[in-house]
Structures are given as structure tokens and as C-alpha cells.
């Protein structure tokens, strides 16, 4: 089988390409990636010379290029997207272009070329925030609340429409927050690990009691591989980890794993429209035989160990002017003395599903 992976130079896409090449020795992979600030081929330097792997630099919005590539593959795994909520608050336009329009370009080309499978990688964020005690099921309506999740929800609507209208064999995956090797150092876990290693403050938004479900990226890759092959056409599947934790709990565990003092934790001005809690029901995917292999603690321990062992990868990124400009725009004012909100008096405990 020949698989077109979009966004394969990104965090999850690169992990997925490595996974596919290892798991399926006869598969060929074409990686289409624009190499935005988030794309980085060093994530794939160990597979670059593999004869079953090919990289094409290009934009998923380029219909001529996409049309050409689509005629040469059997299946698509679509990861390419603008992905950072904080950047979406600065520039929503890029999210609508890539996540919505780019997905449409891929769908149209996939339909015209008659691809046999289109795995669309969506997110738990399309459900919007979920009240305590509740978990989102696949047939719940989308209720996105920020430009990133709204763009991802828009993409999903297009994917479903192409299935309903043209019979395109799509499967939609909705993974929880991923952690693991090669995540860009502006995302929260790598940002906190790399800041702590430099004795810089860890900027926790608001009271830090927002809840996320932390999924180890290898577990996500297993689930996505299963859905690529065995997901029912036209269906959506949640990929939860069952590792619900408050951000401040996650932050304290990172400091503990790194042997750094709690004084590095800094409560800062909240993200506008910050979703308080995500939580998904995983029954549907479990019936296909998948279960995550990593607990929250194992996922964080492995991630921290990877960042300690692979400074060569992230140190180069954080030294770029692109990263520094983003960091200043996002955190300089927030971290200025006198800007922090009053310290939270929350009880720092683990949330259980
Ligand atoms: P990422 O930001 O690390 O990587 C995105 C990749 O897409 C980059 O390599 C970038 O260069 C590429 N890209 C961006 N615009 C493009 C375009 N127009 N054409 C071609 N390539 C383009 O993202 P990630 O964290 O690996 O996420 C991958 C997918 O998984 C996304 O669709 C995201 O919405 C979804 N997702 C991510 C998470 C998470 O926790 N990271 C959770 C749930 C869902
Ligand atoms: P993020 O990785 O942006 O994912 P999400 O899309 O789920 O919001 O952030 C994860 C959580 O971490 C989210 O609740 C926001 C919080 N966060 C901080 O508290 N400080 C930070 O500097 C960042 C980047 C995120």
C-alpha cells in the first residue's frame, strides 16, 4: 500500500510515519509537508534514506500538486494543519486557510483519484469544553470555542460532507492532547520541560485548573493505524488516554521529574476563551481492540527523558529568531513582575475520569 501522509514533518505525523514504516514492511509513504515553522525534517532523519519513504515539500492548498500526488497513492492520513491555539488567537486566517480550505483541496483530489481510504486527524477540541462529570461521545454535536477548534470542526464537516455526498471512504479520528518525542518546544509540555532545564519560569495560564487528557504519541499512532485499516467508513472515533489531569498537577510533576524547584511555577494571565476541560468517552475505539499502553506518569517520564537525551533537536529550535519572537509576543508581558494574577489556592490533585 502507498500512503500519502500530510503534515508528516510535524510532531504526530513524523511519529506516525516511523510507526507505519516499522509496522508495515511493504508500505510506501509519501510525506507532503509545507515545512511551516512547525515542520522540521530532522524529526525524520533516521528514515530519510529509507527507499520506502519519499518527501515532497508543498502546500495542501496547492490543488495541482495534491491532484498529482493523489493519483499515486491508495490511502491518505491527513495530519497537516495549523495546530497551536495560542497562535490561532494571534492569526486565525492561517488556520482557516490550511485546516479548512486545505482539507477541502485534499478531499476533492482524493475523490477524483478514487483513493480507498481517507483518515482525517481531527481533535477532541471540536467538542468544546466539557463540564465536570461528563465525557464527549462521537455523536455529540461540535461546539468549538476558539479559532483553532472552529477550523478543525469546519474541516471535519467537509470530511463528512464528502462521505455523505460522494461516498468518499473517510474515517475521522479525534485524539486527545499528545505528548512525546519531537513535539515543538512552544507546546505546553516541551515548553515547560525546556524552560525548567534553563531555570526559566513555567507560565501556567489562569488558575491552572484546566483539565486535559494526556495521550502518549505512540499510543495515538497505534490507534490511528488501527483506524486506517479497520475503522468503519464514515465514522468518527475518539482517542482518549484516560489520563485526565489539571495543568498545575502536570506542571508540578514535570518539575519533580526534572529535580527543579516549585518556585519556577508562575501563574500568568489566562488564555482568552480557554476551554476548561476536555474529556472523551473511549468505548467505541475499545470495541476495535485498542487501549493506551501508557499511564500519565509513564507518558511524562518518557517524554522528559527524551528531551533530556535530545537537546540537539530542541536547542536549535529555541535559538531561532522565529521561536524567540513568538516567545516574546506570547510571554514577555505575561511574565513581567506585577502582571501575574493572585496565586491560586486550588487543591492540586489528580482528576480521575
Ligand atoms: P504540528 O504543528 O507539530 O505539525 C503540523 C505539520 O503540518 C507541520 O509539519 C507543518 O509544516 C505542516 N503543515 C502546516 N500547514 C501545512 C500546509 N498548508 N500544507 C502542508 N503542510 C502543512 O502538529 P501536530 O501536533 O503533529 O498535529 C498533527 C495533527 O493532529 C493536526 O491535524 C492536529 O490538529 C491534530 N491533533 C494534534 C493533537 C496534539 O496534541 N498535538 C491532538 C489532537 C489532534
Ligand atoms: P496546548 O498544548 O496549547 O493544548 P490545548 O490545545 O489543549 O489548549 O495547551 C495545553 C494546556 O496547557 C491548555 O490548558 C493551556 C495550557 N498552557 C499553559 O498553561 N501555559 C502555556 O504556556 C501553554 C502553551 C499552555
Describe this structure in words.
This protein folds into two domains: 2-179 and 215-239, 3-Layer(aba) Sandwich (Rossmann fold), CATH 3.40.50.720; 188-211 and 244-276 and 295-332, Alpha-Beta Complex (UDP-galactose 4-epimerase, domain 1), CATH 3.90.25.10. 41% of the residues lie in helices and 16% in strands. It is built from twelve helices and twelve strands. It has helices at residues 11-23, 63-70, 85-90, 92-113, 147-166, 188-197, 217-230, 247-258, 283-286, 296-309, 311-318, 321-335; strands at 2-6, 28-33, 53-57, 75-78, 117-121, 170-175, 177-179, 202-205, 211-216, 236-239, 244-246, 265-268. Helix 1 (11-23) links the parallel strand 1 (2-6) and strand 2 (28-33). Helix 1 packs across helix 7, helix 2 (63-70) runs parallel beside helix 4 and helix 6 runs parallel beside helix 8. The chain is globular. The two termini are 38 Å apart. The site of thymidine-5'-diphosphate has 14 residues, from helix 3, helix 6 and strand 8.
CATH class descriptor name of the largest domain? Alpha Beta
Would you count the extended β strands for me? 12
Small molecules bound: nicotinamide-adenine-dinucleotide, thymidine-5'-diphosphate
Q: Strand count, sense and closure of the main sheet?
A: 7 strands, parallel
**Sequence of secondary-structure elements:** EHEEHEHHEHEEHEEHEEHEHHHH
**CATH arch. level architecture of the largest domain:** 3-Layer(aba) Sandwich
Strand order within the widest sheet? 3-2-1-4-5-6-10
Percent helix = 40-55%
Rough shape? globular
Structure annotation, total helices: 12
What number of structural domains do the residues give?
Answer: 2
Name of the CATH homologous superfamily of the largest domain: NAD(P)-binding Rossmann-like Domain
Query: Taking Cα atoms only, what radius of gyration do you get, to the nearest Å?
Result: 20 Å
> CATH topology of the largest domain, which one?
Rossmann fold
Distance between the termini: 38 Å
**Secondary-structure content class:** alpha/beta
Contiguous uncertain segments of 5+ residues: 342-350
Beta content comes to: 15-25%
Report mean pLDDT, rounded to a whole number.
Answer: 96
Amino acid at each position: 500500500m502507498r500512503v500519502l501522509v500530510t503534515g508528516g514533518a510535524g510532531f504526530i505525523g513524523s511519529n506516525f510515519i516511523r510507526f507505519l514504516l516499522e509496522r508495515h514492511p511493504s508500505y510506501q509513504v509519501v510525506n507532503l509537508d509545507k515545512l511551516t515553522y512547525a515542520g522540521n525534517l530532522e524529526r525524520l532523519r533516521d528514515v530519510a534514506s529509507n527507499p520506502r519513504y519519499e518527501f515532497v515539500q508543498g502546500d495542501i492548498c496547492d490543488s495541482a500538486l495534491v491532484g498529482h500526488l493523489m493519483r499515486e497513492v491508495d490511502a491518505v492520513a491527513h495530519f497537516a494543519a495549523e495546530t497551536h491555539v495560542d497562535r490561532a488567537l494571534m492569526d486565525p486566517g492561517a488556520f482557516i486557510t490550511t485546516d479548512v480550505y486545505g482539507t477541502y483541496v485534499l478531499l476533492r483530489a482524493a475523490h477524483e483519484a478514487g483513493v480507498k481510504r481517507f483518515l482525517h486527524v481531527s481533535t477532541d477540541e471540536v467538542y468544546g469544553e466539557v463540564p465536570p462529570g461528563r465525557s464527549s461521545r462521537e455523536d455529540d454535536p461540535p461546539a468549538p470555542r476558539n479559532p483553532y477548534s472552529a477550523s478543525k470542526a469546519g474541516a471535519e464537516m467537509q470530511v463528512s460532507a464528502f462521505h455523505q455526498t460522494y461516498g468518499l471512504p473517510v474515517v475521522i479520528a479525534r485524539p486527545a492532547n499528545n505528548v512525546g518525542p519531537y513535539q515543538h518546544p512552544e507546546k505546553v509540555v516541551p515548553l515547560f520541560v525546556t524552560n525548567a532545564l534553563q531555570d526559566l519560569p513555567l507560565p501556567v495560564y489562569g488558575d491552572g485548573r484546566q483539565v486535559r487528557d494526556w495521550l502518549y504519541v505512540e499510543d495515538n499512532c497505534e490507534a490511528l493505524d488501527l483506524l486506517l485499516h479497520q475503522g468503519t467508513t464514515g465514522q468518527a472515533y475518539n482517542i482518549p488516554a484516560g489520563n485526565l489531569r489539571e495543568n498545575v498537577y502536570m506542571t508540578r510533576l514535570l518539575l519533580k521529574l526534572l529535580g527543579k524547584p516549585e518556585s519556577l511555577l508562575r501563574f500568568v494571565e489566562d488564555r482568552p476563551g480557554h476551554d476548561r476541560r476536555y474529556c472523551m468517552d473511549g468505548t467505541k475505539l475499545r470495541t476495535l481492540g485498542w487501549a493506551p499502553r501508557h499511564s500519565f506518569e509513564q507518558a511524562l517520564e518518557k517524554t522528559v527523558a527524551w528531551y533530556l537525551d535530545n537537546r540537539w533537536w530542541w536547542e536549535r529550535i529555541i535559538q531561532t529568531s522565529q521561536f524567540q519572537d513568538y516567545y516574546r509576543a506570547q510571554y514577555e508581558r505575561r511574565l513581567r513582575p506585577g502582571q501575574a494574577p493572585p496565586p491560586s489556592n486550588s487543591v492540586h490533585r489528580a482528576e480521575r475520569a
